[in-house]
Amino acid sequence: MKLDTDFVRAQFPAFSDPALAGWRHFENAGGSYACGQVIDRLTRFYTQRKLQPYGPAGPTAAGGAEMDEARDRMAGLLGVLPDEVSFGPSTTQNTYVLAQAFRRKMQPGDAVVVTNQDHEANTGPWRRLVEDGFEVREWKMDGEGRLHLADLENLLDDKVRVVAFPHCSNIVAEINDVPAICAAVRAAGAVSCVDGVSYAPHGLPDVAKLGADIYLFSTYKTYGPHQGIMVTRNGVEQDLPNQGHWFNADYPGKRLTPAGPDHAQVAACAGIADYMDALSAHHGGAVAHDLMRAREVEMLQPLLDWVSGRNDVRLLGPADAACRAPTVALQHDIRGEVLAERLAEHGIMAGGGDFYAVRLLDAMGVDPAHGVLRVSAAHYTSDADMAALMEALDAVL
């Protein structure tokens, strides 16, 4: 079944707001539009529930119930248990706290594995463990930006405690074989930590089927408020030192969140589930993830073909839409930020720079200071949007 793009776009108030008329949103990798279901829940919470939650009075009890609902329903979307879901202020913060927890658990001589394909938020906190005497090993990409499982296996031994890698990169965007990687990590006796920030907006995955011990993503990129979600499975959170208040040590969802939750934003995350349910129901019960991915592949391939046919620009990552997210980074003689400014003159919202993937760009021979142009779509991107983008790119490249 094909995605009904008109129905989808009707769920996002931004598409009908006069302030955004004439603009085409191609900076989705930096943050998606919020769906109406999230906005409605956030508005209701700030209007009716902006009180200390979980109290005996009706409005405060309702606020706590909405926060619990968000945890339960996000867990359902991700195929995990509610106790395996933690909310935090951002994925960057969640990753930092996680690395600090591992730091307290690890012993001299222990090692972690990171990649040079990552956004710095998922690699930096782990790399800093070298300052405490732990070994940091780098799983390196090949010249095309691809990670090979055999290279990881050469790094794994009984010293490795955690392997941190992305579901897909925010630059090359190729979807890594997460189940195979997680299986190899588990066989080596280590913990797999998957950065899903660049993949989750294109269809929330079934984390249990992926086999990941830890999975992280940001809800402001999955059509919701600015929160980070961290899934910890297989007893990982119980095996790590408590990072929260000592009296919350027995609550799995609080062990790795030292900061108090943003009540309203946590509650509003249930709106993401509302939207996914509406999307599935409108399409006869089809799986939202599959609908979104199929639409993105169909919509993205013409752009990749168009870029591949040019000799004045380099596409980073594969030219096959089926194996990548709709995030497209282009290297050109003109600096990425300048190209983004020129696209804005044509009504295209895009980005230019290094996108916190400095190590990746260095490894691929791109000067991070020069940067790349990044255009990123989502399942709500229309064919008219794509046509306008290619016309504008033709004018500025």
UniProtKB/TrEMBL annotation:
Signal peptide: none annotated. The keyword Zinc does not apply. It comes from the Bacteria. Its EC number is 2.8.1.7. Residues 26-389 form the Aminotransferase class V domain. SUPFAM superfamilies: PLP-dependent transferases. This is Putative cysteine desulfurase. It comes from Pontivivens insulae. The gene is csd.
